Amino acid sequence: MKKFLEMLTEEMQQAFTAAGYDGSLGKVMLSNRPDLCEYQCNGAMAGAKLYKKAPIMIANDVAEQLKDSKVFSEVVAVAPGFLNLKVSEAFLLTYLQGMEANEKFGLEKPEHPKKIIIDYGGPNVAKPLHVGHLRSAVIGESVKRISRYVGHEVIGDVHLGDWGLQMGLVITGLQERQPELVYFDENYAGEYPEEAPFTISELEEIYPAASAKSKEDPEYKAKAMEATFKLQSGVRGYRALWKHIINVSVNDLKKNYSKLNVEFDLWKGESDVHDIIPEMVAYMKDNGYAHLSEGALVVDVKEDTDTKEIPPCMILKSDGASLYNTTDLATIMERMKLYHPDELIYVVDKRQELYFEQVFRCARKTKLVEPETELKFLGFGTMNGKDGKPFKTRQGGVMRLENLIKDTQDEMYKKIKEGRDMEDAEAKKVADVVAISALKYGDLSNQASKDYVFDIDRFTSFEGDTGPYILYTIVRIKSILNKYKEQGGDLTAVKLQQPGNASEKELAMELAQFNTMIATAGEELAPHKVCAYIYDLANAFNHFYHETKILGEENEERKQGLVALLVLTRDILETCIDMLGFEAPEKM
Ligand code: ARG
């Protein structure tokens, strides 16, 4: 199906042409004076110069052509030359019927569906998830779902940080606590125990302690570096221990991500490309892309048009060790080989932007990717506290993601108990679901690149631009629909009708915008556009709800039309929240 606004524009373009003007002037947009009209066209203003004519004359000519339009019920030329437009109710009805009848509400498949890999989450094994990882997970998951909905093939990869110094630190910390473990005996030739010699809580203690110690004690740091080196060069006991660390940690990560409805298709990590690094390095050297600079192997990536200094991309350190860059480049090489994606999207803290610029340039220059492969960096800003500084616990430490979720659930529970009469157990269940919407919507409703303030009180409010408000609206619709069914109504038999009042028409026009909105959100990787849309849609619905008798409507045909409009509103809202990665409870 064509997009609603496109159809309005086509009608207007034909009128411009018929009146003897250039059709491309007939662009229709949403009105910025909703008190005067629903849509507007400013083409006559642009045409004035071209035709050396007063804009109002052009506008009048065009309006004349649209006298009998089936698309516009009202076309008014106003000084100095605007065209104020209202959409015909019959046309609107036909459009909504088309949305109802078509898959995905008539959203057309992309002309060139792409295969996309989204690199998001990016947790580091053995380190607890903290709020910094929240944004990557929440935004990445939504971008993945939107891109899939739009019609692309999308693979989500968590890209674990599982190969760096933190692994050596954990191994060193563990050795200090349990030096008797067989893993540390380099002459040991038997099997290693299947059971991990630590729990997740121990693991979470070990890393911070070892990390702190390594900062004060250079000898300890050297030991951790040596352990990292031994692990990477394949010492059996270290590898066996590392596998345990990964397993215990990944199990815990999966638990946390599933609380957030975040699911990855691939659980790969930096370690997965370890074995192909030598091959990549040889390739870069042999083809003359990489050269030695002060002992390190680098690829120059600066370009003549640069306005700021872009340092060379370092592939190997002077001691031959690989770096963050090295694993990222090798991962690109592997992804191209295994999946042939058309596009790679990285959802990472925007402070890594320059880093990714280097990596992307290097991947292009060394032809790890095809010239047409798109490499996109979706950088996100910081989640701040009310003081405007990066969000911290009350004690001033880094907030663990688990605790942030828990705090939000507790606050939601309090609000639900305050406002309504609900059993504790049910209130708890509902609160857990609604809290996820509070957290995710609070994040996603901001443009990703912007910083935002985590305001638990606002995020969990049932009023305003919040997740709970959206869910509340959905639950309200569901409860009306349930009542309709209880009264013997059949939801599958109801048919849309022409809108009967202004608020109903507004709601219908909002629904008609779905296609345009979702296509844009997909192209721009912009979940905040989905949020803005459902906020407008929920407002339009609630306004309509207060103005309109629904189940009390006496005319049966009209009542069914209203119910059908409710069904469509519910379906679109639910489709949208699914793309944002949260869901609505049955009651709240
Ligand atoms: N583990 C990294 C961090 O915590 C993020 C990984 C982002 N993805 C990537 N391909 N580099 O900063």
UniProtKB/TrEMBL annotation:
**Location of the DALR anticodon binding domain:** 470-588
Where in the cell is the protein located?
A: Cytoplasm
Q: Does the keyword Transcription apply?
A: no
Superkingdom assignment: Bacteria
- What single Pfam family name could you report for this chain, choosing any that match? Arg_tRNA_synt_N
The record lists the catalysed reaction(s) as: tRNA(Arg) + L-arginine + ATP = L-arginyl-tRNA(Arg) + AMP + diphosphate
Q: Which GO terms describe its biological process?
A: arginyl-tRNA aminoacylation
Give start and end of each Arginyl tRNA synthetase N-terminal domain.
Answer: 2-87
User: What keywords is this UniProt entry annotated with?
Assistant: Aminoacyl-tRNA synthetase, ATP-binding, Cytoplasm, Ligase, Nucleotide-binding, Protein biosynthesis
Give the EC number. 6.1.1.19
Q: Where is this motif: 'HIGH' region?
A: 123-133
**Could you state one GO cellular component term attached to this entry?**
cytoplasm
**Predominant subcellular localization, coarse grouping:** cytoplasm
Show the GO MF annotations: arginine-tRNA ligase activity; ATP binding
Q: Which family does it belong to?
A: Belongs to the class-I aminoacyl-tRNA synthetase family.
PANTHER family hit by this protein: ARGININE--TRNA LIGASE, MITOCHONDRIAL-RELATED (PTHR11956:SF11), ARGINYL-TRNA SYNTHETASE (PTHR11956)
Q: Which HAMAP family match?
A: Arg_tRNA_synth
Summary of subunit composition and partner proteins:
Monomer.
Protein name, please? Arginine--tRNA ligase
Q: Which species is listed as the source? A: Waltera acetigignens
